[in-house]
What we know:
Layout: E1 2-10, H1 14-21, H2 27-30, E2 36-41, E3 44-48, E4 55-63, E5 67-72, E6 79-89, E7 92-101, H3 105-124
Antiparallel strand pairs: 1-7, 2-3, 3-4, 4-5, 5-6, 6-7
Amino acid sequence: xxxxxxxxxxxxxxxxxxxxxxxxxxxxxxxxxxxxxxxxxxxxxxxxxxxxxxxxxxxxxxxxxxxxxxxxxxxxxxxxxxxxxxxxxxxxxxxxxxxxxxxxxxxxxxxxxxxxxxxxxxxxxxxxx
Length: 129
């Protein structure tokens, strides 16, 4: 299953945006309102939204000025979340998120709407960087 967010432009140089997204602490400000969030280490964090189970993510790939890739820490629900960066102007960066997960058709049907809403919330909060 793949879900791609809308893209947004923010008023920061790509180097600044990349440095922020490459730091696990940054993701707390991107989370939807009411999310419980905790940093595990420089590369990992955990969060919980409402009645959903707690989810752990680890930054597994940092491509300077291009992308940051996070992967779930659970072997039960395996997925990745990639943030792609494009420099538009000197102080403007376009960001888009892509979720990729390996779910059975029933699970995919159940999680598609909440995941899409979650990703749009993350991308909508990028202005906070």
